[in-house]
From TrEMBL:
Organism, scientific name: Nonlabens spongiae
PANTHER family: SPERMIDINE/PUTRESCINE IMPORT ATP-BINDING PROTEIN POTA, SPERMIDINE_PUTRESCINE IMPORT ATP-BINDING PROTEIN POTA
UniProt key word rRNA processing: no
Occurrences of domain ABC transporter (ranges): 2-239
Superkingdom of the source species: Bacteria
UniProtKB keywords: ATP-binding, Nucleotide-binding, Transport
Lineage: Bacteria, Pseudomonadati, Bacteroidota, Flavobacteriia, Flavobacteriales
Protein's name in the database: ABC transporter ATP-binding protein
UniProt GO molecular function: ATP binding; ATP hydrolysis activity
Amino acid sequence: MLQVRDISYSVATKTGDKRIELLKNISIDLDQGHSLAIMGESGCGKTTLLKFIYGLLPYDRQEVMWNGEPLKGAEDTLIAGHEMMKYVPQEFELMPYTTVFENVGEHLSIQTDDRESRIHELLNVVDLAAYGSRKVKNLSGGQKQRVAIAKALAQEPKLWLLDEPFSHIDNFRKNDLRRRLFEYLEAHQISCIIATHDKDDVLSFTDETLILRSGKIEDYRSTHKVYSDPKNVYCASLFDEVTELDGSLFGKKETLILYPHQLVEVEKGGIEVEVEKSFWTGRDYLIAADYKEKRVYLKSVEKFELGKNIRIDLNS
Ligand SMILES: Nc1ncnc2c1ncn2[C@@H]1O[C@H](COP(=O)(O)OP(=O)(O)OP(=O)(O)O)[C@@H](O)[C@H]1O
């Protein structure tokens, strides 16, 4: 079990007269086998938080605990990084002049009886079984990223720290790869913290979600709650387009933060909006409309012409 206790992390400005706080009062409890998503806008501190947990940055106090034991930060260890964790950074580190097979096997003991079958198992997880003998320098960016993932799994971590792990991988493979990986993690009871901008990494695969904004926790609950009951527009907009409307327009007390599928066109009732644009999304249209100079988004099976007035209501 991982426990992060009220951590803050700051760096000195270039002039050295001030400090910038990159992380402020972050606490995390992660049970073994659970997965946590870290979401937030670019620059909010996701990578810094992963590096901090992994032990690449100095700890002021005993702030990161593993199964109740305090861990040491970068300034107190010879080799930074905790052995029960594996951190897969955005810029993956591979050996370009050796094969995929050798890269993945790098950390497996030569004595391991089932060395070959273990490497094959991991290459299967990342769908690279056919590329074992290929030199890494001759792979595409997405293939290299998959090698980095397999290599990290070869070390049998208890906690996996992933920074935008699918950023180079095409949509065609992404969904399948996600499913295989998270199934592998579940089967081996490996915990996972994944920093991502992609809601598809989060909704189907993580138990909890922590949303960061300027280094502070904006929300930290079950992924289901973070998505379905967003605390504010910032949190909701990490998942989809968002409309914020006064609830009294629909007979509700609270301000409403709505995803496009939560608003629909109706014949009567609701409010009148003016269509500004219809975007085809494959299955239906995302309609951008104006309500008293406020942007409103809804889903529709029908395309609406620019300037058309339609009535919309809550999709209950
Ligand atoms: N050593 C450092 N010195 C000064 N500023 C830093 C340092 N490391 C990170 N930062 C700043 O801290 C902020 C958080 O960076 P971080 O890489 O953690 O963000 P992020 O949420 O992972 O962003 P992205 O989604 O773009 O990868 C950024 O503004 C970054 O420029």
